[in-house]
Amino acid sequence: MVTPSAGAVVVVPFPFSNLTLAKPRPAVVLADAGRGDLILCQVTSNPYADPRAVELTEISFAQGSLRITSYARPGKLFTASRELILSQAGVLTAVAFQVIIESVIHILRTGHSDDLH
Hints:
The protein is mostly beta strands. It contains one helix and seven strands; from the N terminus they run βββββββα.
C-alpha cells in the first residue's frame, strides 16, 4: 500500500481494553512522524460529548467516504506504524482537514479542549 498523506482517512486495528484482540477503526492521518510512523487522530461514529469532535460527513471527503457520519476527536491522538494500516477509506477536503488541525493546535496551545468556538 502507498503511504497515505496528511488528510487521508485510514483503517487501523484498535485494540480492545484487554489487548488480546483488535477491531478495525478509522483514523485521520495528521502527519508523517518519520521512521515509518504516522500521527493519527481517532475517528468514531459515536457523537461523544466531546466539544472538539469534528463531524465528518460525505461532503467532508474529496475522495472516498465513511459509511456513516463520524467524528474526528482532536484530543485523541496517537502514533502508529504505517505497516498497521489495513486500508484507506478516503481523503478529507482541505477545509475539513484544516478544522481538525486547528482544533489540535488549540488543545496544544491552551492545554485543554474546551471553549474553541
